[in-house]
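batch_manifest entry 22 of 60
target: ARSE Arylsulfatase
source organism: Podilymbus podiceps
requested by: lab member K.T.
priority: normal
notes from requester: please return tokens only, no post-processing; we will run our own comparison against the previous entry in this batch. if the run fails, retry once and flag.
--- input ---
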Amino acid sequence: FHFRNKHRPFLLFVSLLHVHTPLITTEKFQGRSKHGLYGDNVEEMDWMVGELLHTIDKEGLKNTTFIYFASDHGGSLEAHRGTAQLGGWNGIYRGGKGMGGWEGGIRVPGIIRWPGVVPAGTVINEPTSLMDIFPTVVHLAGGAVPQDRVIDGRTLLPLLRGTGQRSGHEFMFHYCGVFLHAVRWHQKDS
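--- output ---
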């Protein structure tokens, strides 16, 4: 990577196919994990993210770069080869990818790295959404979120900077296609 815009706001979006069926892993990482092809995918993804973080650090951007790492859904529980499951684990949560409104399919961690702003080890237990990334990066770049339409995302900056204790979402709706599968209500004052 070479960051030619490193002295002004930039957006780098990396979408990895890893840990998503059909589980394609390069030859270098095949057979490295004790957890089969899925584990090999995790190993390769970890290496790729590490390379990106190393480059950001080498370019002197560590403390000023907001990094958000997340999945768009839980593990694929339906993916099998024989009796072996190929698609991850959702912990205590029921369901997985494509399984309606069950938490195992929609509740995933968001991991943030922003050393100049968010202290290491900070835990935020408020409900947020991948839709929140849009208003967050718009604000970070000094822009304004469009006012001519409804924007479902809420900026994460108050939670990250410690100036707010509550998520900007009172209601969160989960759709699969055009069908509403789940709603979470987070009362404002409870």
